[in-house]
Amino acid sequence: MNDKVNTTSEQNGNSSCVGTCTNLDNDALLSLGPKNRYSEIPSIRLFLAKYNTYPSTLDCDNDDEDTPFHATTILNYIRDELKHDITKDCVSRRYNRTAKQKYVHSRLSDLGNGIMISFNGSHLDSEILNKNQLKADYDGKYFLVVSDLKIYHLPEHDSFAQDLADRFSQMTVCSSKSCMLQMVCRNQCGYYLDGIRVKKPLITDLALHYGNNFLTTHDKILNDLNKKESKGIVLLHGVPGSGKTHYIRYLIQEVQDKTLIYVSPDMAKEISSPEFLPFLMRHENAILIIEDAENIIQDRSSSSLPSQAVANLLNLSDGLLGDAMHQQIIATFNCDLTAVDPALLRKGRLVANYEFNKLDLESSKILSDKLGFGTESVTEPMTLAEIYNQSDNNNKSIA
User: Fold this and answer.
1) What's the predicted TM-score (pTM) here?
2) What is the pLDDT of residues 282-332, one digit of tens each?
3) What domains sit in the chain, N to C, each tagged with a CATH number?
């Protein structure tokens, strides 16, 4: 990259490019720029006012939307390498209640001689995988990240702008991914889906969280869920706090091209209602996620009034409905496996059955140390919830 471009000249308006507007008065000139939204820095209008030229624009994008730019690293680069005075930038600040820090939400940096850089919508993120080993901004874990990064420039600096964007592409962090989960709701008109966004936990080592024996089970579950026109049921059970929900948050981010439908514990009993199956029939090739499913999976022979919910699950997972709708089911529960209706455990219907438990002592120490808690307080096998929540000041949670 050629870093020797002149970024100090105040000359403007002498270009013969198509965007040059030397004969317009200020009002007419500024009217060429888009109206700025509330609290947004009017970057194009400021460029017009200074350079009398409508700018060329380069959007700095990454292939992965969950890999934002680290705003601070970019700012340090243009300050140290391009000798830009950041005290002259136009900024807007906000306050983050969680981090208890004021931060720059938007920034416009004018490098001089027809190059401006716009940071729009920056925010603090603590759920970061820092693969480039960049320095955090606050409290050792909060990074100031931005996805909307633009370079405004005069046409003669097009090559420099592209080189600059390439350099910025190396100044990124991995933010926790998220996916849309559809939650079953009900009103006077019947059942409907409402979307909620779920972030992916930063689990870099499944074996460290769930043990080496779990990897084969995970591969089997993921491969089956990603099959087209597949069916079957996944049963995840174990002691409270052992990480069942934490794992599901991780798992659903890896599922491709399928609707994810969350059935809350309160709504789970509705599976036995006559109106529920017709509602589900509108959502073929979906994955149902049912938490705390004890009441709908219990052995029918142990009750004087068997629940229709078990029969509906059987039909969805391996009956005629399953053949037609290709829906898969993930059910979590805390009761003993012996309480589950045996029909749900039959081969051909059951994709996987896994019991989550406490990590052994050595694994608990390793994970605790990796999370920054050390090992002094780890004296016995622990659940993931116990490991993650060793400090009252820790904001992580797990279920």
Assistant:
1) 0.59
2) 888 889 999 888 878 877 776 655 567 777 787 777 766 666 778 888 999
3) 56-175 (no CATH), 178-356 (3.40.50.300)
CA distance to 28, 31, 41, per residue, from 25 (Å): 6, 10, 22
The continuous run of DSSP H or E covering 179 comes out as strand 178-187
Two tokens at 11?
A: 């000359």
The distance from CA 9 to its chain's CA centroid, rounded to whole angstroms, is: 42
pLDDT tens profile 363-377: 999 998 888 788 988
Q: Find residue 106's DSSP bridge partners.
A: 92
Q: Cβ distance 184 to 267 under 8 Å?
A: yes
For residues 77 and 229, give the distance between their C-alpha atoms in angstroms, rounded to a whole number: 50
363-370 contacts at long range (C-beta below 8 A, 24 or more positions apart) = 363/208, 363/211, 366/208, 367/208, 367/209, 370/208
- Spatial neighbors of 198 by CB under 8 A, at least 6 apart, are 178, 179, 180, 181, 249, 252, 253
Q: What order of strands is seen across the sheet that includes strand 56-60?
A: 56-60, 148-153, 115-120, 101-110, 90-96
Q: Please report which helix (H) or strand (E) contains residue 397, including its range.
A: none
**Cα(319)–Cα(232) distance, integer angstroms:** 10
DSSP 96-155: ETTTTEEEEEEEEEE-SSSEEEEEES-EEES-EE-TT-PPPSBTTTBEEEESEEEEEE-G
Given this model, what pLDDT does residue 322 score? 64
pLDDT exceeds 90 at position 131 = no
* CB-CB contact of 375 with 365 (8 Å): yes
Alpha-helix runs per DSSP H in the chain:
26-31, 43-51, 71-80, 158-168, 206-210, 214-225, 244-252, 265-268, 276-280, 294-297, 308-318, 320-325, 361-370, 384-388
In angstroms, the CA 218 to CA 254 distance is: 11
Across residues 224-229, what is the average pLDDT? 88
Q: What is the pLDDT of residues 387-399, one digit of tens each?
A: 988 865 444 555 5
Angle at which helix 244-252 crosses helix 214-225, to 10 degrees, equals: 40
- Identify the bridge partners of residue 101 per DSSP, sorted by sequence position: 96
Q: What is the pLDDT of residue 217?
A: 95
